[in-house]
Each structure stands twice: as C-alpha cells, then as structure tokens.
Amino acid sequence: MPNRRPTRAILLNLVVAVAYFVTGWLGLQLPYYGEHVTLVWVPTAVALAAIILAGPTVIPGIFLGGSSLNIALEPDLPGPATVIAIGNTLAPSLTGIVLVRWYAFRPQLDRLRDTFAYLGVGVLGTGLITATLGALWLCAFGDAPWGDYPTVWLTWFGGEAAGSLIVGPLVLTWLSAPDPIVSHPATPVERIAMAVSVAVVSAIVLAYGEHLVSLPYAFIFLFAWVLLRAGLRGAFLAVGAVALTLVVGTALGVGPFIAQSPQAGMLSLWMFLAAVGSAILTGGGLVGERDRALHHQRRVLAELDHRVKNTLATIVALVERSGDDAVDIDDFRARLIGRVRAIAHTHEGLAGSNSGPMKVGDIVTMTLRPFDSAESDRLLASGDAVTLKAPKVAPLTMVLHELATNAAKYGAWSRKGGRVAVEWACSNGALHLSWRESGGPALSARPIPGYGLRLIEGTVGHELGGSTELEFRGDGLVCTLHIPTG
C-alpha cells in the first residue's frame, strides 16, 4: 500500500493556509480604523490550534497563508510582507509546541492546568511575540514611525490575544474528541433555548448598550448557564457568536463600545472579551475537574460494593468448604475461624503490600491462604523465585484475589474436588503467571464480561502494564497473565 503521509501532510498544509488567508481577509473587510487594524485577529488562533492539533507538520501551511495574505495586502512590498509572515508563523508555532511537549496539553481544555497553560503560553505568549516582532518590522520598514511603536504594539497585541482567547478554544474544543467522563446534560430543547437567549440578549445589548455600557456583562450569567449544561463547546460557540456580534457592531458604530474614542472603545471591547474568555476557560476547567472527581468517586464506590460482595461470597464459600472436610463441630469451628482470620491477614497484607518488593510465591501464598483446605491438591502453586517491585504487588494481589473469589463462587472451588493450579515463570523481563482451574462446572462459551473480569483485565493492563489471556474451557477457566517485572 502506498505511503499516504506526504499527501495527507500536503492537504493539511493547504487547508491551514486557506483557513489562515480567508479568516484574515474577512477580518480586514471590516477594519476598526485605518485599513489594516481589526479588533480581533483570527488567523493567529487558527495557526495556534493547527499546531496543537496537528503538530509542526503544518508550519509551512501557516507561513504560506501568512505570506500570501500580507502580499495580497501590500503587493508592492513583498519583502516586508514575507518578513512579517515569518514572525506570524514563529509565534504560534513556538507556543503551540511548548504547550504540547512541555505541558502535555489536552485540547479539550477540561483541566485547570490546561486552562492556565493556554492563557499564559497560548494567549499571552503568542500575543507578546507577534506584537513585538510585528511592531518592530513595521517601524523598521517605515510603515509606522518609531514614536508610534507603543501604540502599534498595543493594537497588535490586543487583536492577537483576543483572537487566541475567543476563537482558539472554539476551534480546539470542536476539533478534538470530548472526554466521555465530562458530562454535557443539555437537552435539544435546552440548546434551542440557549441559542434564542444568546440572540435576544445580543440584540438588546446592541440596541441599548450605548446608553448602558455595563450591559454586555449580563452575558456572563448566560454563558454560565451554557457552560454548565452544554460544556466548553457550547459555551465558546456562544462566546464566539456574541464576540462576532459585538465586533461587527462596534466596527459599524453600533453597541456599547462606541460612546468613547476609537482607542478607548477598542480597549473596552478587549477587556470585555478578556474577562469573558478567561472566566469561561477557568469555569470549563473547574467543571471538567468536578466531573472527573465524581467519576472517580462513583468508580471507587462501585469497586467497594464489589469488594464487599466478594468478601461475603468468600466467607459463604469457606463455610461450605469447612463443613465438607470437618470431623466434628469443634473441628468445623476451628477451621472456619482460622480461614476467616486468614482473610483478615490477607487484607492486612494487601493494605501494606506497597511497602516493599515481594516474591511472587509469597504473594500467591498470602492471597490464596483463605481459600486453601485440607485437600492436598485443592491448590497447587509453584514457580520461579521472581520478585516484583512494590508498586506491582498490590495490583497482582487484587487480581489473584478476584480469580480466587470467582473460583469459589462459580468455578473449580465451588465444587468438592475442584482444583486450581498456579504456575509462574520469568523470561524476557516479564512474569508469566498461569491460573488453571479443573473439576468445576462446565464452561461452554465465554460469558458476558462482568465487573470482575473487567477489573482483572483493567488492573493488569493499566496498573501492571501487562496483558491478560482468558480461555473458558470445558473443564474450567485458564487465565494467563503477562506482567513486565521492570
């Protein structure tokens, strides 16, 4: 099959270049003052989002879009236009790479660390670099006097930062797969109500905002509702719509930001966008953290419920097995008390199993002692002298205890004469442990995975970094664990 990566990279760069050019050209169709001063500069947000989502592969596309736009604006000055495009490419490329590689940035923006990293590096960092280089090139090429450098810098920074703050999260959240843990419970009717509310409040702000300049901040209550019910995607879609409405209205001389001088109106709009964008980003991170904590709580409660049921089932099985091999009532009592105490010792060992490395043989003995009986061949355990590091002792103990509980409830140990053979060996830097049941109920096919099987496979895969093989044979379960010892 031919390698499609070069073709995909070329197409991706063309898409980024076109998106950069089109958003820049559309923004300049409605300048705030002069020919090239816009309130929000969207291309930088497009470039930053492209670097975060696709990586450095799209850097040529950013440069192509930036240089094409600058040359289209100043066809008689291709040299300066190209130099400015270099700065416009450098800033989002540098900050995007820093976010992904240094901060392990998630584009869903549903963690506080991602929110603060994006605000600090993505918004402020990109704006500082582009404004500093852009204003420097304009003054150096004579397009602006050096005395106007602070004004040019501030104008450039404000437009870049506003674009990165409002449009960047919109692109990132809509082009990345949402975390299923983070809930968005809004119903279709609620979403329609949100859209209508945004439209109505926008119309009111445009109509009466000139006489009441604080009216736009009423949007914050609306955005909070959208954020809590529709998530960051819905919130930034609403913020983007409101920002577009206010920017167009301000450029046309309508709305709450026109009663002042052009510079003051521009600063007021930027402050509003900065307040709203920062609040929504921070709120989105808090909502994501809350949903993740609730999910963890539900998982812990489910595991606790499962553990309690398993413990009770184990005790029931021990009562039954103790009666099978007891000589009299006193012998039955002694056997039962000893095995229940063995369960208690096992849980104590599990709680303290992270204190240091343990031999696999000791782990097997400690975990399976409560399930053993007088039958000499009820449990057969043998293997190499393999030692596991401390962090892997508790997860392996949980897996063995789960297998033993299932054997006592449904498998080989649920019947008299049932046997379990546990064997292990170490090769190629990995522990290979085999659990084989025989003499239990017949198994015809793989059952529907319950919580126990999911727990075994999840623990081995995620906590032990290994893999699980399950075979449901006619004479019993065969489970093989492959666990790296490093």
What are the salient characteristics of this protein?
486 residues, alpha+beta, Arp2/3 complex 21 kDa subunit ARPC3, Heat Shock Protein 90, 3 domains, five-stranded mixed sheet, two-stranded antiparallel sheet, 13 helices, 7 strands
TL;DR of this structure?
The chain has 486 residues and is of the alpha+beta class.
List the helices and strands and how they pair.
Elements: H1 5-28, H2 42-54, H3 59-73, H4 78-103, H5 112-140, H6 149-175, H7 188-208, H8 219-251, H9 262-324, H10 329-351, E1 358-359, H11 360-368, E2 379-383, E3 387-388, H12 390-409, E4 419-427, E5 430-438, H13 451-463, E6 467-473, E7 476-484
Parallel strand pairs: 2-4
Antiparallel strand pairs: 1-3, 4-5, 5-7, 6-7
What does this structure look like?
The chain is an alpha+beta fold. The protein folds into 3 domains: 1-177, Arp2/3 complex 21 kDa subunit ARPC3; 182-254 and 263-292, no CATH class; 325-484, Histidine kinase-like ATPase, C-terminal domain (Heat Shock Protein 90), CATH 3.30.565. Helix content is 65%, strand content 9%. The chain contains 13 helices and 7 strands. It has helices spanning 5-28, 42-54, 59-73, 78-103, 112-140, 149-175, 188-208, 219-251, 262-324, 329-351, 360-368, 390-409, 451-463; strands at residues 358-359, 379-383, 387-388, 419-427, 430-438, 467-473, 476-484. The chain has a 5-stranded mixed sheet with strand order 2-4-5-7-6, with helices on one face. The protein has a two-stranded antiparallel ribbon with strand order 1-3. Strand 4 and strand 5 (430-438) form a beta hairpin. Helix 2 crosses helix 6 and helix 3 runs antiparallel to helix 4 (78-103). The two termini are 37 Å apart. The model has no long low-confidence stretch (mean pLDDT 84).
